[in-house]
Amino acid sequence: METSKQGLVVSAHSADFVWRAGGAIALYAKRGWTMTVVCLSFGERGESAKLWKQPGMTMARVKEDRRREAERAAEILGANIRFMDLGDYPLRVSDEALFQLADIYRELRPEFVLTHSQRDPYNFDHPLATHVAQEARVIAQAHGHEPDTPVLGAPPVFLFEPHQPEQCEWKPQVLLDISEVWEKKRQAFELMAAQEHLWEYYTRVALQRGAQASRNSDRKIRYAEAYQRVFPQVTEELA
Ligand SMILES: [Zn+2]
């Protein structure tokens, strides 16, 4: 049986993957890849302001709402989704959770990984999520870690665009044309009722990166997502 190729997305909060990597996820899902999103938390404290304004709101209900939204968004994008429920503001990751994530790497054997920027002075959960995503990847590569299962290769890691790139010392090194799946991304992020203020913002980001993608190629690209690479690109082609 031919198994499909795998892509892994590690998201600090339950909606981060939609804004920042929804296009890449939908694009690869459309190409027949199995895309898996791991949400380290639901963003229940720090990224659910609108829900908390409702009278009588409880932590359990916020988590449940955010889970449902994220599940529906993942379905629209064509991805599988898993939740680790590690808490947010602050996110804290135990060694046990780190090993769980390493096990996910060994199980899925992703061809690439998408996660947060290395720095983010507005949000300490995001850099921790990227640290953990990268540390788990390295553990999964270690021959002495669970020696009975095959080690992971070296999937490239792409860092998604933070909300304020300049403050995060993040640069767009890869511009991915997501025009053919833009409607799916838009549909998915419109489910994020708790963060309606971001809909227009992320539409502008996609148009901006699209214009830059056109400028850096000979193609007309309307919508794009930008990524920064962690490791050098290995290639036999320069053009
Ligand atoms: Zn977040």
UniProtKB/TrEMBL annotation:
Source taxon at top rank: Bacteria
Single GO molecular function: hydrolase activity, acting on carbon-nitrogen (but not peptide) bonds, in linear amides
Transmembrane residue ranges: none
InterPro entries: GlcNAc_PI_deacetylase-related, LmbE-like_dom_sf
UniProt protein name: PIG-L domain-containing protein
High-level lineage: Bacteria, Pseudomonadati, Pseudomonadota, Betaproteobacteria, Burkholderiales
